[in-house]
């Protein structure tokens, strides 16, 4: 493909990404894969170049651009080589007119910048939200084995955490195939430590998804005790048993919940968990590094629905904790509406519960919990709080 044809392909793909963001359609990665599935003439270098251009544009603009062409015209203003590809050739885009619309660079839509500001988020920390994310792994103590890790760097505060060069094909490493390592962002590892999981405990991972944190809990519990992983999403939860087997996390069991009837399926755990971990569904504002198009998809209405779910999950979790046990609330969001405010609300409703210090070697205090940010901690953004039930 010519450089101009690559630019045209990126414009078409960005149009599809923007439409999907408006209409709740497929993720950008899926759209890119589908696009190339029907264009066999695109070689691997073309695919890589087009994909990079699409993601460069997604990272560059906080407000959704009005079109793929406006996005790339915005980038071309700062990139003469890209501008030259608007050459009007047979498969390339028409030349950019002086007065045609261009997307304006930014980190997030205006309403989300406002939400971040009221959440005490400094504007100096904004650019790091859309940087490229590093590749972090957790060494799995349940499967000790040879670690053939190229250029792994330690992560301060995480004895089992390592940072690998971006682009490392982890799944080709023997250490991954044998379950000796798990891919897990450093921030996710830190907040998992807030559970203070110990061998012999009974723990529920209420929003377990495919089990990222479940596996970390099983390792901390040295595979002793009971660990129940639940979720309402059948597809996600169904991936957990195979991951647990590979990781040797034999204490993890799964249970699918019915949305709205969660407690009915958890009667045998009511008032009986040492710890309930709620890794709640959230806006994902802390994970834009990995999923930058998420900021084009979020709306105030969707945020309000997520907050309702978080409130409900806190009430469900509360009823599962034993007297004197702990409720750990996590979101990969930087917004107080989904973090500090939810915990303040919970503590106002349940005055006999108390927030506890977390003792994490990362993050800064935020309300009654701790917040990690990409700029300060070099991890995805998270909020975590630990609440102690009355005895
Ligand atoms: C942030 S994700 C969990 C990620 C997972 N803990 C990990 O570490 O990989 C939130 C999860 O909450 C689940 N969820 C949403 N509503 C729920 C509910 N009412 N009860 C339990 N899980 C729910 C979603 O299906 C999703 O898998």
From TrEMBL:
| Pfam families cross-referenced by the UniProt entry | Methyltr_RsmB-F
**What GO MF annotations does this protein's record show?**
RNA binding; RNA methyltransferase activity
Q: Name one GO biological process term.
A: RNA methylation
Which residues does the annotation say bind S-adenosyl-L-methionine? 231, 258, 279
Listed InterPro entries: MeTrfase_RsmB-F_NOP2_cat, MeTrfase_RsmB-F_NOP2_dom, RCMT, SAM-dependent_MTases_sf
UniProt cross-references to CDD domains, sorted A to Z: AdoMet_MTases
Q: Which UniProt keywords apply?
A: Methyltransferase, RNA-binding, S-adenosyl-L-methionine, Transferase
Residue stretches making up the SAM-dependent MTase RsmB/NOP-type domain: 113-390
Catalytic center residues: 332
- Family (UniProt): Belongs to the class I-like SAM-binding methyltransferase superfamily. RsmB/NOP family.
Q: What is this protein called?
A: RsmB/NOP family class I SAM-dependent RNA methyltransferase
């Amino acid at each position: 493909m010519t450089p101009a044809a690559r630019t045209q392909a990126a414009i078409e793909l960005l149009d599809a990404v923007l439409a999907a963001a408006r209409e709740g359609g497929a993720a950008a990665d899926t759209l890119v894969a589908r696009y190339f599935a029907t264009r066999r003439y695109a070689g691997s270098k073309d695919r890589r170049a087009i994909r990079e251009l699409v993601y460069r544009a997604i990272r560059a603009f906080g407000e959704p651009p009005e079109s793929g062409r406006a996005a790339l015209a915005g980038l071309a203003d700062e990139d003469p080589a890209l501008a030259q590809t608007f050459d009007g050739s047979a498969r390339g885009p028409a030349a950019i007119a002086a007065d045609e619309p261009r997307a304006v660079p930014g980190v997030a839509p205006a309403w989300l910048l406002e939400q971040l500001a009221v959440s005490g988020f400094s504007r100096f920390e904004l650019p790091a939200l859309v940087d490229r994310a590093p590749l972090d792994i957790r060494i799995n103590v349940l499967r000790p084995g040879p670690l053939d890790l190229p250029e792994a760097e330690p992560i301060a505060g995480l004895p089992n955490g390592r940072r690998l060069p971006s682009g490392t094909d982890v799944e080709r490493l023997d250490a991954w195939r044998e379950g000796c390592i798990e891919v897990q962002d450093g921030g996710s590892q830190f907040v998992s430590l807030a559970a203070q999981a110990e061998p012999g405990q009974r723990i529920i991972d209420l929003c377990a998804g495919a089990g990222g944190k479940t596996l970390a809990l099983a390792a901390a519990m040295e595979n002793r005790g009971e660990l129940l992983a639940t979720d309402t999403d059948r597809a996600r939860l169904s991936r957990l048993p195979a991951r647990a087997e590979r990781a040797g996390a034999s204490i993890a069991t799964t249970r699918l919940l019915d949305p709205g009837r969660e407690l009915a399926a958890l009667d045998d755990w009511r008032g009986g968990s040492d710890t309930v971990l709620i890794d709640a569904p959230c806006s994902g504002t802390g994970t834009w590094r990995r999923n930058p198009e998420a900021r084009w998809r979020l709306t105030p209405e969707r945020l309000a629905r997520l907050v309702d779910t978080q409130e409900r999950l806190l009430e469900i979790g509360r009823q599962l904790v034993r007297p004197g046990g702990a409720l750990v609330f996590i979101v990969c969001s930087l917004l107080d509406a989904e973090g500090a405010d939810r915990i303040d609300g919970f503590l106002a409703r349940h005055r006999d519960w108390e927030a506890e210090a977390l003792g994490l070697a990362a993050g800064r205090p935020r309300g009654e919990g701790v917040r990690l940010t990409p700029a300060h901690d070099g991890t995805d953004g998270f909020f975590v709080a630990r609440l102690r039930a009355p005895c």
